[in-house]
């Protein structure tokens, strides 16, 4: 008899995965909760998704019967599969089910930021670090508080730029994965315009992802060095972040521009989705920048939206402090 979405999967032991351009993360879950400590591996260490899944199960399943899988990956879900945007892997339910000995209907595929959206209602207070500053701070008012029933957005610069919303409906929470990172960027400052010019010359256009990602930070660093009459840097985002720790002026200028651009984009997302429930910033880059620079420029540009500046002062922005939230979201999605 065919399975349906109403099938009770609460007792299933599930392999959950979060596959990014650089790392693959895995854990086991049951009833929307992780059963073990998540593990992270270099994605490039495996030829394909199935081999990475088998390696995790071999090392960590401990004889448990695996009933299903929920795999989140960086890319758009199309025709039930994902061809990853910044990697050469494909996530195909039928092929993965056959490799792992599962029924195809028990393999769920999600966009990675769609999985993060699923996780948002499960986050504890200490898993979100508030971004301070802005109009409320200048006026001496308390920090904005999220509307618990309001729409929410998660955005995250990493290997690429992920965007998803969590919408409150009459039926409950409904995640909406998007490709918002590929919308056209809107530069304002001289440095931002120089970086957009570099991106346009190389790629034909400048999307937000070209600026708000690891390669985007490297591009901003290059633009800042060229404006300072210094040779174009090498080493990508890692070199830019390392230069920030040494107090290098072009690197710090690039990092500030990155933070401000992210604030501008996040403010647009708040307006687009009426995100009274707040904006959550994921990805691995912002916490590393925050270790060397304050993030108040993010809040300033977030609110700099003309007639809606006052409303945006009431919308909280927080940096995600849980590196495995997408795994929890995948577990919740499988159960649901």
Order of helices and strands: EEEEHEEEEHEHEHEEEHHHHHEHHHEH
Strand content: 15-25%
Number of strands: 15
SSE-based structural type: alpha/beta
Q: How far apart are the first and last residues' alpha carbons, in Å?
A: 20 Å
Number of domains: 2
> Briefly, what CATH class of the largest domain?
Alpha Beta
Write the CATH fold name of the largest domain. Answer: Hexokinase, domain 1
Whole-number mean pLDDT: 93
Radius of gyration: 20 Å
Q: Counting H and I runs of at least 4 residues, what is the number of helices?
A: 13
Secondary structure topology:
Elements: E1 13-19, E2 23-30, E3 33-34, E4 39-42, H1 49-60, E5 68-73, E6 77-78, E7 81-83, E8 90-91, H2 93-100, E9 107-111, H3 112-119, E10 128-130, H4 134-138, E11 152-157, E12 161-169, E13 172-178, H5 190-203, H6 208-211, H7 214-227, H8 236-245, H9 249-273, E14 279-281, H10 285-290, H11 296-303, H12 309-312, E15 317-320, H13 325-335
Parallel strand pairs: 1-5, 5-9, 11-14, 14-15
Antiparallel strand pairs: 1-2, 2-3, 2-4, 6-7, 7-8, 10-15, 11-12, 12-13
Helix pairs in contact: 1-2, 3-13, 5-7, 7-8, 7-9, 8-9, 9-11
Write up this protein.
- With 336 residues, this protein is an alpha/beta fold.
- It folds into two domains: 13-120 and 325-335, Nucleotidyltransferase, domain 5; 144-315, Hexokinase, domain 1, CATH 3.40.367.20.
- The protein contains 13 helices and 15 strands.
- The strands form three sheets. Strands 1, 2, 3, 4, 5 and 9 form a six-stranded mixed beta sheet that branches. Strands 10-15-14-11-12-13 form a six-stranded mixed beta sheet, with helices on both faces. A three-stranded antiparallel beta sheet has the order 6-7-8, covered by helices on one side.
- Strand 2 and strand 3 (33-34) form a beta hairpin.
- It is globular.
- It starts with 12 loop residues before the first strand and ends with a helix.
């Amino acid at each position: 008899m065919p399975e349906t979405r109403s099938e009770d999967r609460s007792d299933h032991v599930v392999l959950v995965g979060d596959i990014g351009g650089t790392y693959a993360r895995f854990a086991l879950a049951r009833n929307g909760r992780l059963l073990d400590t998540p593990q992270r591996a270099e994605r490039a260490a495996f030829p394909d998704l199935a081999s990475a899944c088998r390696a995790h199960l071999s090392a960590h399943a401990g004889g448990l019967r695996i009933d299903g899988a929920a795999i989140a990956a960086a890319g758009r879900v199309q025709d039930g599969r994902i061809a990853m945007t910044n990697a050469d892997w494909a996530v195909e339910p039928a092929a993965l089910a056959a490799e792992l000995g599962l029924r195809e209907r028990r393999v769920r595929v999600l966009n990675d930021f769609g999985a993060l959206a699923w996780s948002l209602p499960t986050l504890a207070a200490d898993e979100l670090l508030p971004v301070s500053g802005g109009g409320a701070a200048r006026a001496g008012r308390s920090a904005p508080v999220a509307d618990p029933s309001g729409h929410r957005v998660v955005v995250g610069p990493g290997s690429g730029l992920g965007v998803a919303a969590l919408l409150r409906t009459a039926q409950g929470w409904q995640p909406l994965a998007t490709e918002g990172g590929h919308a056209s960027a809107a530069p304002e400052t001289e440095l931002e315009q120089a970086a957009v010019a570099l991106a346009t010359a190389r790629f034909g256009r400048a999307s937000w992802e070209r600026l708000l990602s690891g390669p985007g930070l490297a591009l901003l660093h290059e633009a800042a060095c060229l404006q300072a009459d210094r040779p174009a840097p090498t080493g990508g985002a890692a070199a830019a972040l390392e230069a920030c720790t040494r107090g290098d002026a072009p690197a710090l200028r690039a990092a500030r521009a990155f933070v401000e651009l992210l604030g501008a984009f996040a403010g647009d997302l708040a307006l687009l989705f009426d995100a009274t429930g707040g904006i959550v910033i994921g990805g691995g880059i912002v916490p590393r920048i925050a270790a060397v620079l304050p993030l108040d420029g993010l809040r300033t540009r977030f609110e700099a939206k003309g007639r809606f500046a006052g409303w945006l002062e009431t919308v909280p922005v927080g940096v995600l402090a849980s590196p495995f939230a997408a795994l929890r979201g995948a577990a919740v999605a499988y159960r649901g």
